[in-house]
Amino acid sequence: MGAPGPLSLNTVTVRERWGLAECIEGCARHGIPGISPWRDVLQAMGVERAGRAIRDAGLSVSGLCRGGMFPAADAAGRAAAIEDNRRAIGEAQAIGAACLVMVCGGLPPGSRDIEGARGMVRDGLHAIMEEARAAGVTIALEPLHPMTCADRSVLSTLGQALDLCDGLGAGSGVALDVYHVWWDPALREQVARAGARIAAFHVCDWLVPTTDTVFDRGLPGEGVIDIPGIRAMVEAGGYRGHTEVEILSRRWWAADPDDVLKEIKRRHATAC
Fold first, then answer.
1. pTM assigned to the model
2. Is the N end or the C end of the chain the one with fewer CB atoms within 10 Å?
């Protein structure tokens, strides 16, 4: 198998020490050709200023994190979520993001109605697709590990995401994060089904033992995920985009960001 796709830094990887301006400068200095901002740091820097800085640094934007969070306890909350996603589409367009990554949302507070929450996700996505298509922004649904179903995403498998894409049509795709899908016994079948609809490929690793199911991700090669094997599946379907490193880890957040970027580059070459 050949080398992985061009490296991209998801800014959450160094969020405790660097803002977006430092991430842009760091990527340029370390020869990392791609970046994927989170909306909080993008908004803190200013969308127009960030877009100029990214372009001036010669970086590609592999994605914008994140839209979604559609389920809410009442109609006003659901409408507010849709409006926020429309703003996110505009932000993604402004910085030239390859996609807007969707973390779709969990159960509304006090609810046990998982099917109802999934219906809110479906309806919310349909409500924004016209704007996304007009803006040329791919809506990339990211299935999250079932452990997050209650609070972060009722979309748990790649198969579920693709079922939604079938209904959403043009302009929709999936963001495949190995941390969230590596366990799925239907993964090979569903990656093949996804084909060209894979809009983003995120890598990190699952540590054993893990001390926190959200904030203890490992760098590629530190854990048990067969990242090259999953990459081979993704590339067999035609994906030729960035390999985006997204690490939510208190351990790595405490490290010097320059050291983290150096280690990411090394592991991108050897463990992806």
1. 0.97
2. N
